[in-house]
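Hi team,

Filling in the usual template for the complex we talked about on Friday. All components are listed, including any nucleic acid strands or ligand strings, so the model treats them as one assembly.

SUBMITTER: L.P.
PURPOSE: interface mapping
COMPONENTS: two
RESIDUES: 601
SEQUENCES:
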Amino acid sequence: MRMKAEPATRVFNLVGYALLIVISLLCLIPFWLIVAGSFTDELEIVSDGFKLFPVTVSFEAYKSVFQTPEQIIRAYGVTIGVTAVGSALGLLLTSMAGYVLSRKDFTYRNPLSFFIYFTTLFSGGLIPWYIMMTKHLGLKDSYWAMILPPLISAWNIILMKNFMKSIPDSIVESAKIDGAGDFRIYRQLILPLSTPGLATIGLFLALGYWNDWFNANVFITDDGKYPLQFLLYKILSSAAVLQTDNGAYLAANIVPPTETLKMAVAVVATGPIILLYPFVQRYFVKGLTIGAVKG
Amino acid sequence: MTGKHGLMRELSRNKTMFLMIAPTLIFFIVFSYVPMVGIYYAFTKFDFEGGLFGSEFIGFENFRFLFESGLLWNLTKNTVLYNLAFLIIGNVMQLVCAIFLSQLPGKLFKKSAQSVMFLPYFLSWVLVGAFVFNLFSDLGVVNTVLKQLGMQPYDFYIQTAPWKYIIVFFSVWKGLGYGTVIYLAAIMSISDELYEAARIDGANIFQQIRRITLPLLKPTFILLILFSLGGILKGQFDLFYQIIGSNGMLYDATDIIDTYVFRSLTVNFDIGMGTAAGLYQSFFGFILIMSVNTIIKKTREDYALF
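RESULT (copied from the run log):
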Protein backbone atom coordinates (compact mmCIF):
# COMPACT_ATOMS: atom_id res chain seq x y z
CA MET A 1 0.00 0.00 0.00
CA ARG A 2 1.78 3.08 -1.17
CA MET A 3 0.38 6.53 -0.55
CA LYS A 4 0.95 9.24 -3.08
CA ALA A 5 3.68 11.53 -1.80
CA GLU A 6 2.45 14.94 -0.79
CA PRO A 7 4.44 18.02 -1.83
CA ALA A 8 6.13 18.45 1.57
CA THR A 9 7.37 14.87 1.46
CA ARG A 10 8.67 15.35 -2.06
CA VAL A 11 10.65 18.43 -0.99
CA PHE A 12 11.96 16.55 2.02
CA ASN A 13 13.05 13.58 -0.07
CA LEU A 14 14.72 15.76 -2.65
CA VAL A 15 16.71 17.71 -0.07
CA GLY A 16 17.55 14.50 1.79
CA TYR A 17 18.81 12.62 -1.25
CA ALA A 18 20.81 15.61 -2.44
CA LEU A 19 22.45 16.13 0.94
CA LEU A 20 23.27 12.47 1.49
CA ILE A 21 24.69 12.14 -2.01
CA VAL A 22 26.92 15.18 -1.52
CA ILE A 23 28.12 13.90 1.86
CA SER A 24 28.74 10.41 0.47
CA LEU A 25 30.79 11.91 -2.35
CA LEU A 26 32.79 13.98 0.13
CA CYS A 27 33.52 10.77 2.01
CA LEU A 28 34.64 8.93 -1.12
CA ILE A 29 36.55 11.59 -3.05
CA PRO A 30 39.66 11.54 -0.83
CA PHE A 31 40.00 7.81 -1.51
CA TRP A 32 39.64 8.34 -5.20
CA LEU A 33 42.32 11.04 -5.06
CA ILE A 34 44.78 8.76 -3.27
CA VAL A 35 44.14 5.83 -5.62
CA ALA A 36 44.26 8.07 -8.69
CA GLY A 37 47.44 9.66 -7.42
CA SER A 38 49.08 6.29 -6.91
CA PHE A 39 48.41 5.31 -10.54
CA THR A 40 49.62 8.57 -12.06
CA ASP A 41 52.90 9.01 -13.87
CA GLU A 42 55.43 10.72 -11.64
CA LEU A 43 56.39 13.20 -14.36
CA GLU A 44 52.83 14.39 -14.69
CA ILE A 45 52.66 15.12 -10.97
CA VAL A 46 55.98 16.92 -10.91
CA SER A 47 54.92 19.17 -13.78
CA ASP A 48 51.16 19.58 -13.18
CA GLY A 49 50.48 18.39 -9.64
CA PHE A 50 47.93 15.83 -8.44
CA LYS A 51 44.76 15.69 -10.50
CA LEU A 52 41.25 14.49 -9.99
CA PHE A 53 41.56 12.54 -13.26
CA PRO A 54 45.15 11.71 -14.18
CA VAL A 55 46.06 11.63 -17.85
CA THR A 56 48.97 9.20 -17.98
CA VAL A 57 48.36 6.03 -16.02
CA SER A 58 51.43 4.35 -14.59
CA PHE A 59 52.11 1.38 -12.35
CA GLU A 60 55.64 2.51 -11.51
CA ALA A 61 54.79 3.41 -7.90
CA TYR A 62 53.44 -0.07 -7.17
CA LYS A 63 56.29 -1.72 -9.04
CA SER A 64 58.64 0.27 -6.89
CA VAL A 65 56.85 -0.71 -3.68
CA PHE A 66 56.74 -4.38 -4.57
CA GLN A 67 60.26 -4.62 -5.98
CA THR A 68 61.74 -4.02 -2.54
CA PRO A 69 58.86 -5.02 -0.33
CA GLU A 70 60.90 -5.97 2.78
CA GLN A 71 60.14 -2.77 4.67
CA ILE A 72 56.41 -2.88 4.02
CA ILE A 73 56.19 -6.58 4.82
CA ARG A 74 58.13 -6.00 8.01
CA ALA A 75 55.79 -3.13 9.01
CA TYR A 76 52.78 -5.31 8.19
CA GLY A 77 54.24 -8.00 10.42
CA VAL A 78 54.73 -5.58 13.31
CA THR A 79 51.20 -4.20 12.95
CA ILE A 80 49.60 -7.63 12.65
CA GLY A 81 51.58 -8.95 15.62
CA VAL A 82 50.84 -5.97 17.85
CA THR A 83 47.16 -6.00 16.81
CA ALA A 84 46.75 -9.73 17.43
CA VAL A 85 48.52 -9.84 20.80
CA GLY A 86 47.04 -6.54 22.00
CA SER A 87 43.46 -7.32 20.99
CA ALA A 88 43.49 -10.85 22.42
CA LEU A 89 45.09 -9.84 25.70
CA GLY A 90 43.02 -6.69 25.96
CA LEU A 91 39.82 -8.59 25.33
CA LEU A 92 40.68 -11.16 27.99
CA LEU A 93 41.49 -8.54 30.64
CA THR A 94 38.56 -6.29 29.72
CA SER A 95 36.05 -9.13 29.80
CA MET A 96 37.35 -10.42 33.14
CA ALA A 97 37.18 -6.94 34.69
CA GLY A 98 33.76 -6.32 33.15
CA TYR A 99 32.53 -9.63 34.51
CA VAL A 100 33.73 -8.96 38.05
CA LEU A 101 32.22 -5.47 38.06
CA SER A 102 28.93 -6.72 36.63
CA ARG A 103 28.43 -9.28 39.39
CA LYS A 104 25.89 -7.73 41.73
CA ASP A 105 27.00 -9.92 44.65
CA PHE A 106 30.55 -8.55 44.53
CA THR A 107 30.87 -6.15 47.45
CA TYR A 108 33.65 -3.91 46.08
CA ARG A 109 31.98 -3.49 42.73
CA ASN A 110 31.28 0.24 43.11
CA PRO A 111 34.56 1.44 44.64
CA LEU A 112 36.56 -0.54 42.08
CA SER A 113 34.41 0.79 39.23
CA PHE A 114 35.14 4.28 40.40
CA PHE A 115 38.84 3.51 40.80
CA ILE A 116 38.90 2.58 37.11
CA TYR A 117 36.56 5.33 35.98
CA PHE A 118 38.48 8.05 37.78
CA THR A 119 41.39 7.61 35.34
CA THR A 120 39.21 9.11 32.61
CA LEU A 121 38.51 12.18 34.76
CA PHE A 122 41.98 13.11 35.85
CA SER A 123 45.47 12.19 34.72
CA GLY A 124 49.03 13.26 35.20
CA GLY A 125 49.26 14.12 31.53
CA LEU A 126 51.44 12.97 28.67
CA ILE A 127 54.85 13.77 30.08
CA PRO A 128 54.74 11.96 33.46
CA TRP A 129 53.23 9.00 31.60
CA TYR A 130 56.00 9.10 29.00
CA ILE A 131 58.68 9.20 31.70
CA MET A 132 57.01 6.26 33.43
CA MET A 133 57.04 4.27 30.19
CA THR A 134 60.61 5.03 29.19
CA LYS A 135 62.60 5.73 32.32
CA HIS A 136 60.95 3.49 34.88
CA LEU A 137 59.65 0.66 32.72
CA GLY A 138 62.36 0.87 30.07
CA LEU A 139 59.91 0.35 27.22
CA LYS A 140 61.65 2.55 24.66
CA ASP A 141 61.94 0.61 21.39
CA SER A 142 60.03 -2.32 22.85
CA TYR A 143 57.02 -3.87 21.14
CA TRP A 144 55.29 -3.63 24.52
CA ALA A 145 55.34 0.14 24.18
CA MET A 146 52.84 -0.32 21.36
CA ILE A 147 50.85 -3.11 23.00
CA LEU A 148 50.39 -1.79 26.53
CA PRO A 149 48.99 1.75 26.16
CA PRO A 150 45.77 0.85 24.30
CA LEU A 151 45.40 -2.50 26.12
CA ILE A 152 42.77 -1.64 28.72
CA SER A 153 40.50 1.35 28.62
CA ALA A 154 37.96 2.39 31.20
CA TRP A 155 35.38 2.91 28.46
CA ASN A 156 35.72 -0.63 27.17
CA ILE A 157 35.37 -2.02 30.68
CA ILE A 158 32.22 0.04 31.26
CA LEU A 159 30.83 -1.12 27.91
CA MET A 160 31.63 -4.74 28.77
CA LYS A 161 30.15 -4.38 32.23
CA ASN A 162 26.90 -2.97 30.86
CA PHE A 163 26.75 -5.71 28.31
CA MET A 164 27.16 -8.44 30.91
CA LYS A 165 24.71 -6.74 33.27
CA SER A 166 21.98 -7.47 30.76
CA ILE A 167 22.49 -11.20 31.27
CA PRO A 168 19.86 -12.39 33.79
CA ASP A 169 21.14 -12.83 37.36
CA SER A 170 19.35 -16.13 37.64
CA ILE A 171 21.94 -17.74 35.38
CA VAL A 172 24.80 -16.87 37.71
CA GLU A 173 22.74 -17.78 40.77
CA SER A 174 21.71 -21.21 39.58
CA ALA A 175 25.27 -21.95 38.49
CA LYS A 176 26.48 -21.00 41.95
CA ILE A 177 23.95 -23.30 43.56
CA ASP A 178 25.26 -26.06 41.32
CA GLY A 179 28.68 -25.37 42.79
CA ALA A 180 30.36 -23.64 39.85
CA GLY A 181 33.29 -21.38 40.73
CA ASP A 182 33.46 -17.73 39.72
CA PHE A 183 35.93 -18.31 36.94
CA ARG A 184 33.97 -21.23 35.57
CA ILE A 185 30.81 -19.16 35.49
CA TYR A 186 32.75 -16.55 33.53
CA ARG A 187 34.28 -18.96 31.07
CA GLN A 188 31.42 -21.36 30.48
CA LEU A 189 28.33 -19.19 30.93
CA ILE A 190 29.01 -15.48 30.71
CA LEU A 191 31.55 -15.48 27.86
CA PRO A 192 29.41 -17.51 25.43
CA LEU A 193 26.44 -15.27 26.20
CA SER A 194 28.51 -12.14 25.59
CA THR A 195 29.81 -12.91 22.12
CA PRO A 196 28.24 -9.82 20.47
CA GLY A 197 29.82 -7.59 23.11
CA LEU A 198 33.15 -9.40 22.82
CA ALA A 199 33.09 -9.06 19.04
CA THR A 200 32.41 -5.33 19.25
CA ILE A 201 35.08 -4.57 21.84
CA GLY A 202 37.55 -6.88 20.13
CA LEU A 203 37.03 -5.04 16.87
CA PHE A 204 37.33 -1.66 18.56
CA LEU A 205 40.61 -2.80 20.09
CA ALA A 206 41.88 -4.23 16.81
CA LEU A 207 40.99 -1.07 14.92
CA GLY A 208 42.75 1.03 17.53
CA TYR A 209 45.90 -1.08 17.28
CA TRP A 210 45.85 -1.20 13.51
CA ASN A 211 45.54 2.57 13.19
CA ASP A 212 47.90 3.47 16.01
CA TRP A 213 50.89 5.57 15.05
CA PHE A 214 51.22 7.71 18.16
CA ASN A 215 52.90 5.19 20.41
CA ALA A 216 55.40 4.32 17.71
CA ASN A 217 55.99 8.03 17.24
CA VAL A 218 57.03 8.57 20.84
CA PHE A 219 58.55 5.22 21.76
CA ILE A 220 59.97 3.59 18.65
CA THR A 221 63.16 4.83 17.05
CA ASP A 222 64.35 1.54 15.55
CA ASP A 223 62.99 1.57 12.00
CA GLY A 224 62.84 -2.23 11.94
CA LYS A 225 60.05 -1.97 14.52
CA TYR A 226 57.93 0.61 12.74
CA PRO A 227 54.27 -0.38 12.46
CA LEU A 228 52.47 0.21 9.19
CA GLN A 229 50.79 3.52 9.97
CA PHE A 230 53.95 5.02 11.37
CA LEU A 231 55.94 3.93 8.33
CA LEU A 232 53.31 5.59 6.16
CA TYR A 233 53.56 8.72 8.26
CA LYS A 234 57.33 8.75 7.90
CA ILE A 235 57.12 8.27 4.16
CA LEU A 236 54.50 11.00 3.83
CA SER A 237 56.56 13.46 5.80
CA SER A 238 59.56 12.44 3.69
CA ALA A 239 61.53 11.74 6.85
CA ALA A 240 62.27 8.19 5.79
CA VAL A 241 61.86 7.54 2.14
CA LEU A 242 61.01 3.98 1.40
CA GLN A 243 64.17 2.10 0.56
CA THR A 244 63.51 1.60 -3.11
CA ASP A 245 65.83 0.71 -5.89
CA ASN A 246 66.41 4.29 -7.05
CA GLY A 247 69.67 3.43 -8.74
CA ALA A 248 67.86 1.47 -11.40
CA TYR A 249 65.67 4.46 -12.19
CA LEU A 250 68.56 6.87 -12.42
CA ALA A 251 70.44 4.46 -14.67
CA ALA A 252 67.40 4.18 -16.95
CA ASN A 253 66.99 7.94 -16.91
CA ILE A 254 63.47 7.85 -15.49
CA VAL A 255 62.15 10.00 -12.64
CA PRO A 256 61.86 7.68 -9.63
CA PRO A 257 58.36 7.68 -8.18
CA THR A 258 58.29 9.69 -4.95
CA GLU A 259 54.99 11.56 -4.76
CA THR A 260 53.11 8.70 -6.38
CA LEU A 261 54.96 6.30 -4.10
CA LYS A 262 53.52 8.07 -1.06
CA MET A 263 50.04 7.51 -2.43
CA ALA A 264 50.77 3.88 -3.31
CA VAL A 265 51.99 3.17 0.22
CA ALA A 266 48.84 4.84 1.58
CA VAL A 267 46.76 2.48 -0.57
CA VAL A 268 48.76 -0.58 0.49
CA ALA A 269 48.51 0.40 4.17
CA THR A 270 44.77 1.05 4.09
CA GLY A 271 43.70 -1.76 1.76
CA PRO A 272 43.00 -4.38 4.43
CA ILE A 273 40.72 -2.03 6.39
CA ILE A 274 38.71 -1.22 3.29
CA LEU A 275 38.46 -4.89 2.36
CA LEU A 276 37.35 -5.93 5.85
CA TYR A 277 35.05 -2.96 6.34
CA PRO A 278 31.89 -4.43 4.78
CA PHE A 279 32.14 -7.48 7.02
CA VAL A 280 32.83 -5.78 10.34
CA GLN A 281 30.78 -2.61 10.02
CA ARG A 282 27.63 -4.07 11.53
CA TYR A 283 29.44 -5.13 14.71
CA PHE A 284 30.50 -1.56 15.27
CA VAL A 285 26.99 -0.28 14.65
CA LYS A 286 25.65 -2.84 17.10
CA GLY A 287 28.28 -1.97 19.69
CA LEU A 288 27.60 1.72 19.42
CA THR A 289 23.91 1.26 19.96
CA ILE A 290 24.58 -0.85 23.05
CA GLY A 291 27.03 1.69 24.40
CA ALA A 292 24.66 4.55 23.71
CA VAL A 293 22.08 3.21 26.13
CA LYS A 294 23.84 4.28 29.27
CA GLY A 295 27.43 4.62 30.49
CA MET B 1 34.14 -5.88 62.93
CA THR B 2 36.77 -3.48 61.61
CA GLY B 3 36.92 -2.44 57.98
CA LYS B 4 40.29 -4.05 57.49
CA HIS B 5 39.07 -7.33 58.90
CA GLY B 6 36.12 -7.17 56.50
CA LEU B 7 38.39 -6.54 53.53
CA MET B 8 40.63 -9.48 54.33
CA ARG B 9 37.61 -11.74 54.66
CA GLU B 10 36.25 -10.44 51.36
CA LEU B 11 39.62 -11.06 49.71
CA SER B 12 39.80 -14.66 50.78
CA ARG B 13 36.16 -15.36 50.06
CA ASN B 14 36.24 -13.81 46.60
CA LYS B 15 39.81 -14.72 45.74
CA THR B 16 38.98 -15.64 42.16
CA MET B 17 37.11 -12.41 41.56
CA PHE B 18 39.98 -10.30 42.86
CA LEU B 19 42.48 -12.29 40.83
CA MET B 20 40.43 -11.72 37.70
CA ILE B 21 40.34 -7.97 38.13
CA ALA B 22 43.86 -7.65 39.55
CA PRO B 23 45.69 -7.22 36.19
CA THR B 24 43.33 -4.39 35.29
CA LEU B 25 43.84 -2.68 38.64
CA ILE B 26 47.62 -3.04 38.37
CA PHE B 27 47.43 -1.62 34.85
CA PHE B 28 45.66 1.51 36.03
CA ILE B 29 47.92 1.88 39.06
CA VAL B 30 51.05 1.68 36.92
CA PHE B 31 49.90 3.70 33.92
CA SER B 32 47.46 6.16 35.49
CA TYR B 33 47.88 6.54 39.23
CA VAL B 34 51.65 6.33 39.71
CA PRO B 35 52.34 8.83 36.89
CA MET B 36 50.20 11.32 38.81
CA VAL B 37 53.20 11.66 41.12
CA GLY B 38 54.96 13.15 38.11
CA ILE B 39 52.71 16.19 38.39
CA TYR B 40 55.50 17.41 40.63
CA TYR B 41 57.56 18.13 37.46
CA ALA B 42 55.21 21.01 36.81
CA PHE B 43 56.62 22.77 39.84
CA THR B 44 60.27 22.23 38.99
CA LYS B 45 62.90 23.53 36.67
CA PHE B 46 63.48 20.08 35.26
CA ASP B 47 66.95 18.85 34.62
CA PHE B 48 67.69 15.47 33.16
CA GLU B 49 70.43 14.69 35.70
CA GLY B 50 68.24 15.29 38.73
CA GLY B 51 65.15 13.36 37.76
CA LEU B 52 61.93 13.70 39.69
CA PHE B 53 63.06 14.96 43.07
CA GLY B 54 66.53 16.14 42.12
CA SER B 55 65.22 19.02 40.03
CA GLU B 56 64.98 22.49 41.50
CA PHE B 57 61.58 23.31 43.00
CA ILE B 58 60.32 26.61 41.65
CA GLY B 59 56.71 26.67 42.79
CA PHE B 60 54.30 28.16 40.29
CA GLU B 61 56.99 29.75 38.09
CA ASN B 62 56.16 27.54 35.08
CA PHE B 63 52.49 28.41 35.31
CA ARG B 64 53.35 32.08 35.70
CA PHE B 65 55.47 32.01 32.58
CA LEU B 66 52.77 30.20 30.58
CA PHE B 67 50.20 32.69 31.77
CA GLU B 68 52.21 35.89 31.40
CA SER B 69 53.61 35.02 27.98
CA GLY B 70 50.06 34.76 26.70
CA LEU B 71 50.81 31.22 25.58
CA LEU B 72 48.29 29.63 27.88
CA TRP B 73 45.55 31.97 26.73
CA ASN B 74 46.24 31.24 23.07
CA LEU B 75 46.37 27.47 23.64
CA THR B 76 43.18 27.49 25.70
CA LYS B 77 41.39 29.68 23.20
CA ASN B 78 42.36 27.45 20.28
CA THR B 79 41.52 24.23 22.12
CA VAL B 80 38.12 25.44 23.30
CA LEU B 81 37.06 27.18 20.08
CA TYR B 82 38.03 24.24 17.86
CA ASN B 83 36.25 21.82 20.16
CA LEU B 84 33.15 24.00 20.16
CA ALA B 85 33.15 24.08 16.37
CA PHE B 86 33.65 20.29 16.17
CA LEU B 87 30.93 19.76 18.70
CA ILE B 88 28.24 22.03 17.34
CA ILE B 89 28.77 21.49 13.62
CA GLY B 90 29.41 17.79 14.18
CA ASN B 91 26.30 17.15 16.26
CA VAL B 92 24.01 19.17 14.01
CA MET B 93 25.29 17.36 10.91
CA GLN B 94 24.91 13.99 12.59
CA LEU B 95 21.40 14.83 13.71
CA VAL B 96 20.37 16.02 10.25
CA CYS B 97 21.82 12.93 8.57
CA ALA B 98 20.14 10.64 11.09
CA ILE B 99 16.76 12.28 10.48
CA PHE B 100 17.08 11.90 6.72
CA LEU B 101 18.31 8.34 7.02
CA SER B 102 15.36 7.44 9.20
CA GLN B 103 12.69 9.05 7.01
CA LEU B 104 13.79 8.73 3.41
CA PRO B 105 12.44 5.85 1.34
CA GLY B 106 14.85 3.53 -0.45
CA LYS B 107 16.52 0.98 1.78
CA LEU B 108 19.47 0.22 -0.45
CA PHE B 109 20.34 3.87 -0.93
CA LYS B 110 20.19 4.57 2.78
CA LYS B 111 22.26 1.54 3.62
CA SER B 112 24.94 2.47 1.13
CA ALA B 113 24.98 6.10 2.23
CA GLN B 114 25.32 5.08 5.84
CA SER B 115 28.15 2.67 5.05
CA VAL B 116 30.01 5.28 3.06
CA MET B 117 29.56 7.89 5.79
CA PHE B 118 30.84 5.52 8.46
CA LEU B 119 33.94 4.61 6.48
CA PRO B 120 36.16 7.58 7.50
CA TYR B 121 35.79 6.57 11.15
CA PHE B 122 37.78 3.41 10.39
CA LEU B 123 40.77 5.10 8.86
CA SER B 124 43.91 6.15 10.60
CA TRP B 125 44.65 9.82 11.05
CA VAL B 126 47.83 9.19 9.09
CA LEU B 127 45.69 8.55 6.03
CA VAL B 128 43.87 11.81 6.68
CA GLY B 129 47.33 13.36 6.63
CA ALA B 130 47.80 11.75 3.20
CA PHE B 131 44.52 13.30 2.00
CA VAL B 132 45.62 16.70 3.21
CA PHE B 133 48.96 16.28 1.46
CA ASN B 134 47.26 15.20 -1.77
CA LEU B 135 44.83 18.12 -1.66
CA PHE B 136 46.73 21.08 -0.28
CA SER B 137 50.47 20.65 -0.87
CA ASP B 138 52.03 22.79 -3.60
CA LEU B 139 51.54 19.83 -5.95
CA GLY B 140 48.07 19.23 -4.52
CA VAL B 141 44.79 18.86 -6.36
CA VAL B 142 43.52 22.27 -5.23
CA ASN B 143 46.52 24.02 -6.74
CA THR B 144 46.28 21.95 -9.90
CA VAL B 145 42.70 23.10 -10.33
CA LEU B 146 43.63 26.72 -9.59
CA LYS B 147 46.35 26.56 -12.23
CA GLN B 148 43.99 25.00 -14.75
CA LEU B 149 41.60 27.87 -14.13
CA GLY B 150 44.46 30.25 -14.84
CA MET B 151 44.73 31.44 -11.25
CA GLN B 152 47.76 31.86 -9.03
CA PRO B 153 48.62 28.78 -6.96
CA TYR B 154 47.92 29.19 -3.26
CA ASP B 155 50.61 28.45 -0.72
CA PHE B 156 48.67 26.72 2.03
CA TYR B 157 51.72 26.19 4.20
CA ILE B 158 52.16 29.86 5.07
CA GLN B 159 48.52 30.90 5.39
CA THR B 160 46.67 30.27 8.63
CA ALA B 161 43.18 31.17 7.37
CA PRO B 162 42.19 28.03 5.41
CA TRP B 163 43.46 25.56 8.01
CA LYS B 164 40.76 26.43 10.50
CA TYR B 165 38.17 25.23 8.01
CA ILE B 166 40.23 22.25 6.88
CA ILE B 167 40.66 21.08 10.48
CA VAL B 168 36.98 21.48 11.30
CA PHE B 169 36.01 19.78 8.04
CA PHE B 170 38.09 16.68 8.68
CA SER B 171 36.99 16.42 12.29
CA VAL B 172 33.32 16.51 11.28
CA TRP B 173 34.04 14.25 8.31
CA LYS B 174 35.67 11.56 10.41
CA GLY B 175 33.06 11.53 13.19
CA LEU B 176 29.93 11.90 11.06
CA GLY B 177 29.08 8.22 10.61
CA TYR B 178 29.70 7.40 14.25
CA GLY B 179 27.45 10.14 15.60
CA THR B 180 24.79 9.44 13.01
CA VAL B 181 24.54 5.85 14.20
CA ILE B 182 23.96 7.04 17.77
CA TYR B 183 21.27 9.54 16.77
CA LEU B 184 19.71 7.00 14.44
CA ALA B 185 19.42 4.55 17.31
CA ALA B 186 17.69 7.23 19.38
CA ILE B 187 15.27 7.97 16.52
CA MET B 188 14.51 4.29 16.03
CA SER B 189 13.42 4.04 19.66
CA ILE B 190 10.61 6.55 18.99
CA SER B 191 7.33 4.72 18.68
CA ASP B 192 5.90 4.47 15.16
CA GLU B 193 2.44 5.10 16.56
CA LEU B 194 3.29 8.74 17.21
CA TYR B 195 4.05 9.30 13.54
CA GLU B 196 1.01 7.27 12.52
CA ALA B 197 -1.26 9.44 14.66
CA ALA B 198 0.34 12.62 13.37
CA ARG B 199 -0.16 11.50 9.78
CA ILE B 200 -3.82 10.75 10.40
CA ASP B 201 -4.15 14.26 11.85
CA GLY B 202 -2.76 15.58 8.57
CA ALA B 203 0.75 16.58 9.73
CA ASN B 204 3.28 16.68 6.92
CA ILE B 205 6.80 15.36 7.25
CA PHE B 206 8.32 18.66 8.39
CA GLN B 207 5.67 19.07 11.04
CA GLN B 208 6.25 15.51 12.20
CA ILE B 209 9.96 16.15 12.54
CA ARG B 210 9.46 19.43 14.35
CA ARG B 211 6.77 18.18 16.70
CA ILE B 212 7.85 14.60 17.30
CA THR B 213 11.42 13.77 16.32
CA LEU B 214 13.19 16.91 17.50
CA PRO B 215 11.49 17.24 20.90
CA LEU B 216 12.07 13.57 21.62
CA LEU B 217 15.73 13.80 20.58
CA LYS B 218 16.35 16.90 22.64
CA PRO B 219 17.46 15.01 25.77
CA THR B 220 19.94 12.90 23.78
CA PHE B 221 21.22 15.97 21.98
CA ILE B 222 21.68 18.02 25.16
CA LEU B 223 23.25 15.09 26.95
CA LEU B 224 25.80 14.46 24.20
CA ILE B 225 26.62 18.18 24.04
CA LEU B 226 26.99 18.40 27.81
CA PHE B 227 29.30 15.40 27.98
CA SER B 228 31.42 16.86 25.22
CA LEU B 229 31.53 20.19 27.03
CA GLY B 230 33.04 18.33 29.96
CA GLY B 231 35.92 17.33 27.71
CA ILE B 232 36.29 20.63 25.93
CA LEU B 233 39.83 21.19 27.16
CA LYS B 234 40.97 17.85 25.75
CA GLY B 235 42.29 18.39 22.26
CA GLN B 236 42.30 15.88 19.42
CA PHE B 237 46.02 15.44 19.12
CA ASP B 238 45.94 13.05 16.15
CA LEU B 239 43.86 15.41 14.07
CA PHE B 240 46.01 18.47 14.62
CA TYR B 241 49.30 16.66 14.42
CA GLN B 242 48.52 14.82 11.20
CA ILE B 243 47.05 17.84 9.46
CA ILE B 244 49.39 20.58 10.67
CA GLY B 245 52.44 18.59 11.72
CA SER B 246 55.37 20.69 12.80
CA ASN B 247 54.65 23.71 10.65
CA GLY B 248 55.52 26.53 13.03
CA MET B 249 54.02 29.12 10.69
CA LEU B 250 50.55 27.89 11.55
CA TYR B 251 50.87 27.55 15.34
CA ASP B 252 49.13 30.81 16.11
CA ALA B 253 45.89 29.51 14.71
CA THR B 254 46.32 25.77 15.19
CA ASP B 255 48.32 25.09 18.33
CA ILE B 256 46.28 23.38 21.03
CA ILE B 257 47.28 22.34 24.54
CA ASP B 258 47.98 18.78 23.47
CA THR B 259 50.27 19.70 20.60
CA TYR B 260 52.12 22.13 22.84
CA VAL B 261 52.67 19.47 25.51
CA PHE B 262 53.84 17.04 22.84
CA ARG B 263 56.36 19.56 21.51
CA SER B 264 57.58 20.32 25.01
CA LEU B 265 58.40 16.65 25.34
CA THR B 266 59.82 15.84 21.92
CA VAL B 267 61.18 19.09 20.49
CA ASN B 268 61.88 21.67 23.20
CA PHE B 269 62.62 19.16 25.99
CA ASP B 270 60.93 21.56 28.37
CA ILE B 271 59.60 18.94 30.75
CA GLY B 272 58.56 21.33 33.53
CA MET B 273 56.66 23.66 31.25
CA GLY B 274 54.99 20.84 29.33
CA THR B 275 53.88 19.08 32.49
CA ALA B 276 52.53 22.38 33.81
CA ALA B 277 50.43 22.88 30.67
CA GLY B 278 49.23 19.28 30.92
CA LEU B 279 48.33 19.69 34.57
CA TYR B 280 46.45 22.90 33.84
CA GLN B 281 44.45 20.99 31.21
CA SER B 282 43.82 18.01 33.46
CA PHE B 283 42.88 20.12 36.49
CA PHE B 284 40.40 22.40 34.75
CA GLY B 285 39.12 19.49 32.69
CA PHE B 286 38.36 17.70 35.94
CA ILE B 287 36.50 20.70 37.35
CA LEU B 288 34.54 21.01 34.10
CA ILE B 289 33.43 17.40 33.97
CA MET B 290 32.48 17.45 37.64
CA SER B 291 30.35 20.56 37.06
CA VAL B 292 28.70 19.01 34.02
CA ASN B 293 27.95 15.88 35.99
CA THR B 294 26.44 17.90 38.83
CA ILE B 295 24.21 19.73 36.38
CA ILE B 296 23.05 16.49 34.78
CA LYS B 297 22.50 14.92 38.18
CA LYS B 298 20.26 17.80 39.25
CA THR B 299 18.13 17.66 36.14
CA ARG B 300 18.13 14.06 34.96
CA GLU B 301 19.66 11.90 37.62
CA ASP B 302 19.47 8.65 35.67
CA TYR B 303 21.83 10.03 33.02
CA ALA B 304 24.59 11.20 35.37
CA LEU B 305 27.99 9.64 34.82
CA PHE B 306 28.50 8.72 38.47
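MY TAKE: Chain B has 15 helices and two strands. Residues 62-303 of chain B form a domain with the MetI-like fold fold (CATH 1.10.3720.10).

Thanks, L.
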